[in-house]
Amino acid sequence: MAESRSSCSIERTAIVISVGQNHVVAAVNGKNINIPASKVVPSVKPDDRIQWNGSLWTVIGEG
Prior knowledge:
By secondary structure, the chain is mostly beta strands.
């Protein structure tokens, strides 16, 4: 039986609600989620638009 691998790519973006010492609260698809601070770039601040790159949430347009 042949193995099938998905090449589907989902772009996940969010809006930062608040930034704490250990986590970031962000709105993703209308739901607030807690993201560990270790998974978000240090420069993030409230109202930033962020995007998941597969290993880290980065600010859209930063750089």
